[in-house]
């Protein structure tokens, strides 16, 4: 049945903006079409891609009537998301990015939660972090309750993983959608505005696989978004009658790591969380890049003998 042409609107509108993500968007699309909750329309907006991403989306639209492809010249994330919201008809809006993967039960789990909690306007989830090749290296679990999420958002640390979210469409429209004056921080701004009219929640299950690599949006946020984040946090604090200084913003104080250091951090996380094959893969690459750096060899050893390293750490602490 073609949900998008049925008299009644679908339960969910899936919003997927795409820009030059040909290598990963096919897997993303497949993960949405494979959901156990099938009552959705799938809105894909190609934001002026030049790498063939649009062809992948077009093929999906030709094969599944729930998929609708929209094309535009490159306009950026906030403009693209607002256009998708304008086109949507579902009660709930599900977000996914073009390099992430939804677990099969994600929609069913989040719909059940929102149906049972009418005061909740946004529900996210834990995410399984994967590297650029799709190998897992750790789980990110964020606070579950509204107050803790809002506190993290107000600190600039982030309390919600954007590609894991499902939102009430009417609440998003009520708050005006994504603002255009906070580039690469438009999601945090919307979450903070939503927090003033309803409850936010995170589920403990990792319902999305979140791809982390230098090209994804979260990496860009850390390098380019400090000014926008400071401005929106200042406004959010003022709206709540709270004082704010830039030092309140934890994200703006972070040091941008080199690609080598970032890869080493991912690999150590993989060791600690038991994803040893991923850890060894990255450790070998690090030793090839810097063969004289003892930290890379220490990491490689830890990926082969994690229990020994854990024991040595416990004795030295």
UniProtKB/TrEMBL annotation:
<dbReference type="InterPro" id="IPR001173">
    <property type="entry name" value="Glyco_trans_2-like"/>
</dbReference>
<feature type="domain" description="Glycosyltransferase 2-like">
    <location>
        <begin position="13"/>
        <end position="172"/>
    </location>
</feature>
<keyword id="KW-0808">Transferase</keyword>
<keyword id="KW-0328">Glycosyltransferase</keyword>
<comment type="similarity">
    <text>Belongs to the glycosyltransferase 2 family.</text>
</comment>
<protein>
    <submittedName>
        <fullName>Glycosyl transferase family 2</fullName>
    </submittedName>
</protein>
<dbReference type="InterPro" id="IPR050834">
    <property type="entry name" value="Glycosyltransf_2"/>
</dbReference>
<dbReference type="Pfam" id="PF00535">
    <property type="entry name" value="Glycos_transf_2"/>
</dbReference>
<dbReference type="InterPro" id="IPR029044">
    <property type="entry name" value="Nucleotide-diphossugar_trans"/>
</dbReference>
<dbReference type="GO" id="GO:0016757">
    <property type="term" value="F:glycosyltransferase activity"/>
</dbReference>
């Amino acid at each position: 049945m073609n949900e998008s042409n049925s008299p009644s609107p679908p339960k969910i509108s899936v919003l997927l903006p795409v820009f030059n993500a040909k290598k990963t968007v096919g897997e993303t699309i497949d993960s949405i079409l494979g959901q156990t909750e099938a009552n959705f329309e799938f809105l894909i907006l190609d934001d002026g891609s030049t790498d063939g991403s649009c062809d992948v989306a077009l093929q999906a639209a030709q094969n599944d009537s729930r998929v609708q492809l929209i094309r535009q010249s490159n306009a950026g994330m906030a403009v693209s998301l607002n256009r998708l919201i304008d086109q949507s008809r579902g009660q709930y809006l599900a977000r996914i990015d073009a390099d992430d993967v939804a677990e099969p039960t994600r929609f069913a789990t989040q719909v059940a939660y929102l149906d049972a909690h009418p005061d909740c306007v946004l529900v996210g989830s834990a995410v399984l972090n994967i590297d650029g090749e799709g190998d897992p290296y750790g789980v990110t679990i964020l606070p579950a309750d509204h107050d803790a999420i809002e506190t993290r958002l107000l600190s600039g640390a982030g309390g919600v993983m954007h590609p894991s979210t499902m939102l009430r469409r009417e609440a998003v429209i009520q708050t005006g959608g994504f603002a255009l004056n906070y580039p690469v921080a438009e999601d945090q701004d919307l979450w903070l505005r939503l927090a003033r009219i309803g409850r936010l929640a995170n589920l403990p299950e990792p319902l999305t696989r979140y791809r982390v690599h230098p090209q994804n949006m979260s990496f860009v946020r850390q390098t380019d978004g400090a000014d926008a984040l400071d401005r929106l946090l200042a406004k959010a604090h003022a709206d709540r009658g709270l004082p704010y200084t830039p030092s309140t913003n934890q994200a703006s104080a972070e040091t941008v790591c080199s690609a080598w250091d970032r890869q080493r951090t991912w690999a150590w996380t993989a060791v600690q969380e038991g994803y040893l094959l991923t850890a060894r893969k990255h450790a070998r690459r690090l030793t090839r890049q810097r063969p004289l750096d003892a930290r890379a060899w220490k990491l490689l050893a830890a990926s082969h003998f994690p229990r020994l390293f854990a024991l040595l750490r416990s004795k030295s602490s």
